[in-house]
Amino acid sequence: MLAGKGFSKVYNLSGGIKAWGKEVAVGSEDVGLHLFSGVASSEEAIVTGFGLETGLREFYLSMQKQVSRATTRSLFSLLADIEILHQERLVKLYNAINGTTITVADFAEKIAGPAMEGGLSTEEYLQLYKTDLESELEVLGLALAIEAQALDLYVRAAERGGESRKVLLQIAEEERGHMARLSQYIDQQPDLA
To answer: Which domain holds residue 141?
Structure first.
């Protein structure tokens, strides 16, 4: 099933999910859903998603300032730049739904108090995953965990139903793609520290 979805390395875990010893989406079933309370329309779901991507970009930029290794600073910069691409995809989706041609900069003005992607704060992520911010591999693992958390959040928000369901599932698929690209990047970096 996973191989059919484009994953090149698929492992069978003896003992099932109970034997899994790595990161999974964390928190209670309603963690982060407050971000989508009152979100009824597809447009509102996109605006919320854009704010989450903005928050994640700001997180990566703030982490970039806290590390001393040049390679890790560059990685945080790359991850921050990737969030711009995610924002552009959301604005493109917004324009497709509404028949508009709003720019990313104009769209950003609609965002009030962006939150971090996945519904947890910066401090909560760092405490939860206890990431060595000087290790590129651990930073990539954190980025992958954040994308998994975001995927889980969008799917749970979509399960609430309503007009925004289709868009939330579409954004969740985007998150799957983000995870696949991060996994490929990790696989292509033989010298990660």
So the answer is: 37-187
Total of domains in the chain: 1
* Model pLDDT for residues 100-137, shown as the tens digit of each residue: 898 888 888 765 344 445 666 666 766 777 788 888 88
What CATH number should be reported for the domain holding residue 177? Answer: 1.20.1260.10
Give a yes or no: residue 159 inside a domain: yes
Secondary structure, 3-state, the chain: CCHHHCCCCCCCCCCHHHHCCCCCCCCCCCCCHHHHCCCCCHHHHHHHHHHHHHHHHHHHHHHHCCCCCHHHHHHHHHHHHHHHHHHHHHHHHHHHHHCCCCCHHHHHCCCCCCCCCCCCCHHHHHHHHCCCCCCHHHHHHHHHHHHHHHHHHHHHHHCCCCCCHHHHHHHHHHHHHHHHHHHHHHHCCCCCC
Q: Is there a domain that residue 17 lies in?
A: no
